[in-house]
Write a structure and sequence with these properties.
- The complex is a heterodimer of chains A (about 110) and B (about 110).
- Chain A has no helices and eleven strands.
- By secondary structure, chain A is mainly β.
- In chain A, strands 2, 4, 5, 9, 10 and 11 form a six-stranded mixed sheet that branches.
- Chain B has about 110 residues and is mainly beta.
- In chain B, strands 2, 4, 5, 6, 9, 10 and 11 form a seven-stranded mixed sheet that branches.
- In chain B, strand 7 and strand 8 form a beta hairpin.
- The termini of chain B are far apart.
- In chain B, about 35% of the residues are buried.
- Classes of the chains: A mainly beta (about 110), B mainly beta (about 110).
- Chains A and B meet through strand 4, strand 5, strand 9 and strand 10 of A and strand 5, strand 9 and strand 10 of B.
Chain lengths: ~110, ~110
């Protein structure tokens, strides 16, 4: 069973608009979440994270929101740029923040059109 | 220069062959990991190592083995490759301690015919 779910395989937005990528989780023990970005022919790169003690974390154009009661998090990119076109993975560590066993969602392909 | 280097980047081989994928890092991290990615799926953990003397199985370790030759080197072996091991393989590293992000290499694309 999938503990981290990204139900949208793809998303297309116009340059300058907001991109919202969603992630749901089922394991209430998860207390830390990460977003990774992956370009073709490259490995995933860490983008932003959030601890369960917060409901928002912001880093430049990227903001992650966490709704613990709904077991839902989202990544907002504002404004979106063509260089943001990539696959985005949501991930959570299995063991209380030890971050040694990440469970990944299947990813969402974001395309930002000029 | 890449901090996490995987070799080879691409490999095509035949069923039954032994294959080794290598990973080296210059980040000085204690923890290293091997993942595989299949089309339409997220990354799944094969093995991980907290230090040279510590090796642990991940979610999908059957058919794989690993060796941690040094703090900076972690290799993945397929003793007798089979076609359903065709995938993209990633090595990652992280610092010890809680909530440390993992840093990934650029992957090895492995095809088994």
């Amino acid at each position: 069973d999938q503990q981290v779910k990204q139900n949208s395989p793809s998303l297309s937005v116009q340059e300058g608009r907001i991109s919202i990528l969603n992630c749901d989780y089922t394991n209430s023990m998860f207390d830390y979440f990460l977003w990774y970005k992956k370009y073709p022919a490259e490995g995933p790169t860490f983008l932003i994270s959030i601890s369960s003690i917060k409901d928002k974390n912001e880093d430049g154009r990227f903001t992650v929101f966490l709704n613990k009661s709904a077991k839902h998090l989202s990544l907002h990119i504002v404004p979106s740029q063509p260089g943001d076109s990539a696959v985005y993975f949501c991930a959570a560590p299995d063991s209380g923040g030890s971050n040694y066993k990440l469970t990944f969602g299947k990813g969402t392909l974001l395309t930002v059109n000029p | 220069d890449a901090d996490v280097t995987q070799t080879p980047r691409n490999r095509i081989t035949k069923t039954g062959k032994r294959i080794m994928l290598e990973c080296s890092q210059t980040k000085g991290h204690d923890r290293m990991y091997w993942y595989r990615q299949d089309p339409g799926l997220g990354l799944r953990l094969i093995y991980y190592s907290f230090d040279v003397k510590d090796i642990n199985k991940g979610e999908i370790s059957d058919g794989y083995s690993v060796s941690r030759q040094a703090q900076a080197k972690f290799s993945l072996s397929l003793e007798s490759a089979i076609p359903n091991q065709t995938a993209l393989y990633f090595c990652a590293t992280s610092q010890a301690g809680g909530n440390q992000p993992q840093h990934f290499g650029d992957g090895t694309r492995l095809s088994i015919l």
